[in-house]
Amino acid sequence: MTTELIRLEGINKSFGNVQALKDIDLKIDSGEIVALLGDNGAGKSTLIKALSGVYPIDKGAIFFKGKHASIRSARDAIDLGIETIHQDSSLAPDLSIANNLFLGREPMRYAWMGAFSPIDRAYVESRTRELLRKAGISKNLDPHTKIKGLSGGERQSIAIARAMFFSSDLIILDEPTNNLGVDETRAVLRFIREARASGHSCIYITHSLHHVFEVADRVIIMRQGTIISDLPRSETDLIRTEMLITEGVVRSAETS
Ligand SMILES: Nc1ncnc2c1ncn2[C@@H]1O[C@H](COP(=O)(O)OP(=O)(O)OP(=O)(O)O)[C@@H](O)[C@H]1O
């Protein structure tokens, strides 16, 4: 049985006289991996920024787990269970892996002391080690290693692991494999599959169509602020998808 996780109804967003999103309707179920595609300027980033609390929407409604949701800040999105991993990775390069994982959610050693309590470092360290194991990061990384000393793939895996660890229901990935090597890309794709296997949903923005056909359950194509195609992966293919992205049409016997 499928369970609806998020539903967008009539979402509109303009920047001056540029209408970046026009009446977007979209529904994503729990455990679904959705590829969000489209040419430059199609509206993909604006859509995910609306979901991650970066831009307030002008019009429309967002329902999360069946309830009306008001997403007006990044905190609102995170509190709902929406974690966004941006292109350049959302990790702070000068902080350690452990500090990044628990940034803004530091566990306190003595609950009764509230904000004055020291951080529970032993807990942070043991959970970080557990998470690194789960993330399948092969090197035996020390939780105190600074993010800037890690490879691009390791950073992306840690960012995704953080979203999974904090039980974000919806993980939004904006070009997660940009500038990654072959092995690192594999690791990120494997992680997306693992996220799905444990019931998380993902919206995955990419220009790499081959990756889409490896991991996505559904392929959504945007053009000029609207969704022009929304198909299960089994009902489309690379050539058709490419034509829809670049020309907005499929030139084949079925459509001409
Ligand atoms: N902050 C902004 N101010 C003004 N216009 C913007 C802003 N953000 C996006 N736009 C415009 O909104 C439209 C959609 O842009 P958006 O970045 O969402 O597209 P995209 O599909 O993510 O493109 P890309 O693949 O190039 O990142 C474009 O015409 C863009 O110029």
What characteristics describe this protein?
256 residues, alpha/beta, Rossmann fold, 6-stranded mixed sheet, 4-stranded antiparallel sheet, 10 strands, globular, binds adenosine-5'-triphosphate, ABC transporter related, sugar transport, membrane
Can you walk through the features of this model?
The model has no long low-confidence stretch (mean pLDDT 85). 38% of the residues are buried. The protein has 256 residues and is of the alpha/beta class. It is built from eight helices and ten strands. The strands form two sheets. A six-stranded mixed sheet has the order 6-7-8-3-9-10, sandwiched between helices. Helix 5 (152-165) runs parallel beside helix 6 (182-197). It binds adenosine-5'-triphosphate. InterPro entries: AAA+_ATPase, ABC_carbohydrate_import_ATPase, ABC_transporter-like_ATP-bd, P-loop_NTPase. It holds the Pfam family ABC_tran. One of its GO terms (molecular function) is ATP hydrolysis activity.
